[in-house]
Here is the input.
Amino acid sequence: MEYNDSSVTDWQFKDMESKCFGNEQKTNSYGSYYSMGDSYGTSGYMLFYERRVKKPIKIVVPDSEIEEAKSSGVEIKHDAEKNEYFREVQYRKAADGEKPNKIY
Here is the structure.
């Protein structure tokens, strides 16, 4: 699927090279780029928004590791709605010493 600013349409993988690696931009007589129904570049991009004030990150704790975490002094919380145990880590330290979860 192609997610554009104003629409979502079907997209064919075979079109990747011709549609995703840019093209020449068009300018009007004033030298400004324009897009009124015309292509103004087809390089893909994504926007990422980041909070200025970071909230702690929740890291899910597998059932098999709950007792070990508690005994080592880590505060474990329980989310009853999701029925999962987690610990909170400050945003800037979230990846320190972490290993990725098993890939299923």
